[in-house]
Queue: 2 jobs
Job 1
Amino acid sequence: MKSKAAILYNLNSERPYTESKPLKIVEIELDSPGFNEVVVKIKAAGLCHSDLSVIDGNRPRQLPMAMGHEASGVIIELGKGVKNLKIGDHVVFAFLPSCGNCQFCQTGRAGLCESGAEANVNGTLIGGHKRIHKGDEYYYHHLGVSGFAEYAVASVNSLVKIDSDIPFEIAALFGCAVLTGVGAVVNTAKLKLGQSILIVGLGGVGLAAVLGAKAAGASKIIAADLNTQKREVAKSLGAHYVINSSKSNALNELIELTGGGVDVSVEFAGAIPALEFAFQATKRGGTTVTAALPHPEARLELSPVILVGQEKSLKGSYLGSCVPSRDIPAYIELYKSGRLSVKKLITHKISLNQINEGFERLALGEAIRQIIIFD
């Protein structure tokens, strides 16, 4: 099967991306789906900072790679062994496949799936195969999805079936922005009703966390970002207070506002100063969570005396500590009931041919979630 796809051949392209065009729209070929694999016609895909971090070299991947990890679509072909999905089913991709058999999957920690993590590092589907090529040259898969394309071959372990009445552009958000943002708040940080929370970094994932904190019943939601426009968006989504965390008195302002710091802080900015701010803003006995992915060489200096003497916790969150097959349908139900207004995260709808313009817009901080719409 032939398909147009956005392929990344080189890292660290010069800005602006509107001129360097790091993503090339290429007509590629897809192999037939193998065992427990399907072909998905992509209907919508979101542009995420995690994609941008690959493009700008902060998260190096094997190249050439068919990019995109937040997408939704409809199944059009089944491989052998597929049991619980059928042609015509609407699906959301999860960017870490879950094998269901390892010690982590069996204890409800699908985000730590060993086979899924290995496949993502190797740029293959969870079965170890690459299904994307042009002639004799095979391309790597991006997190088992490669959703910036008209069609994708995917493992059933990367897919969650959803109701067919959910618009595809909304459904795509649940594969990363909502899964990661809401999950970090309710699964990793375990925010309790009436607790205060600080959310640092207000991209699509951070703003989804604002929605999650509101749905979970936080008493004070404080949102921090350097971008004025994003702080205003956070207020419109339910943040009670907003802070420019780069200001010299920002930490003192927050501590005074909360009477000693927040119960929970979550950081999505992918910058060490942002994580430091989140940790310092967390009160004694509180929990700081980071779900961001800075450059692998970035390091955080932390005094164990503070961890012990103040009984603070610092936790990582990947995939929102979610079980996609459990949490994506649950979060969609919250959306349907009006408690997760995820539609407000979408600022632009674009075509596949406009993808480099979209990533330049994202790099400039001029967009929240841009959705590629496929006809």
Note: Residues 334 and 340 are 6 Å apart (CA to CA).
Job 2
Amino acid sequence: MSLNKVVKEEISGNVAKSFVAQISRFHRIQASTMFHEAAEYVKSELLEIGLSDAAIEQFPADGKKKYWTYTSPVGWTVKSAELRLVEPSEKLIATYDDVPQCLHTCSNATPADGVTAELVDVGAGTKLADYEGKDVKGKIVLATGRARRVHELAVFKYDAAGVITDTITFEMPDVRESVDIPDAHAYQSIWPSADELPKVKFGFSLSKRQGNHLRALLKGGKPVS
């Protein structure tokens, strides 16, 4: 029997897909609990098929430790998170349990009773000019820019209470025009260093449809919280 025939009979696209489906259940953020759980799953499957030396290597991740030129991310664990509209009407917008990607990676915890704050649209939220004439202190900003830069300005510089983004995933203008995914949540992260961690608050990544709904409410002239 030829090698090609042996390989062809052994390889299964269905089995490969099932492995991917299982791994996709975990929100595999670097230095997070689900990343470790995904590694444990892979290890168990490798042991099951006979790779007796399969093991998980662990290294410190604290936002300080460097590996050559790479600074390790801050460890991150999420118990739960949800974003609710409370004014001008009440509505549950997003939950971590339903869509883990809706929470900005490395968001910090809020007080036990949460945070209620007015919403302010800052456009892209990535330039100083986006904040001219706008008081965002203690408020939640709505922005189309990448989470890291929006947090640097809105939260670190102007002391906003939190960030909501509805960023388009694709950065290239030619691609942006050809992709219509209004209900997708773009992966967004704050990625703070250990020194920045005390200043971090929280952020949510919403779909474009959800973001546009909030903007429409803001244009209605009533406070949005």
Note: The domain at 82-219 is CATH 3.50.30.30 (Glucose Oxidase; domain 1).
